[in-house]
Amino acid sequence: MKTIVKLTAVALILLIAACGKESKFLVNTSLQGKWKLSATYADPGDGSGKYLPVSASNTEYVQFKTDGTLAGTAFVNYESYAEKDSVTLIFTATDHITKQNFRYSIKGNELTMSPAGPIMCIEGCGERFTKIDQ
Questions:
Q1: CATH number, domain containing residue 93
Q2: Count H helices, E strands: the chain?
Q3: If you ran DSSP here, which 8-state letter would residue 91 be given?
């Protein structure tokens, strides 16, 4: 019985110690993983735009890796990302110079993104992704 109490105490101490450490990464952990393009937004300029589902055969995806790199077919001109703040991502192009901001939000397993400069859409545009892998 004393052995069980000692083991439980040790396990509890380890658990508390592990929970006390803070991550030094600024990456939103819910962002990390593989996301498949599910819808695109377009507005003809009159405010009537809406998100429309992509075709079932569409295979575009983006993968946000834990080391800050990007993979996939949705943003092939960009190789890395960083979180600027809670609503803005900064993508760095493969030339290591060009940067692009994207507004983003995550609700459940849905990621919504739209360009936020320097390239922007005059009429409004955006993409939605569904998380398919951690």
A1: 2.40.128.490
A2: 1, 9
A3: E
Nearest-CA neighbor of 83 among 110, 109, 60, 106? 106
Say what the pTM is. Answer: 0.73
Q: Report the candidate in 102, 109, 101, 86 with the shortest Cα–Cα distance to residue 38.
A: 109
**Does the residue 16 lie in any domain?**
no
Residue 81 lies in a domain: yes
Domain range for 36: 25-133
**Number of domains composing the chain:** 1
d(CA 27, CA 93): 18
The phi and psi torsions of 12 (rounded to 5 degrees) equal -65, -40
Inter-CA distances, 114 with 48, 71, 100, 129, Å: 17, 18, 11, 11
User: 129: burial class by Cβ within 10 Å (0-12, 13-18, 19+)?
Assistant: buried
Does residue 7 lie in a domain region?
Answer: no
Is the pLDDT score of 133 beyond 50?
yes
Q: pLDDT digit string (tens) for 38-59? A: 999 988 888 888 999 999 999 9
User: Could you tell me if residue 71 is inside a domain?
Assistant: yes
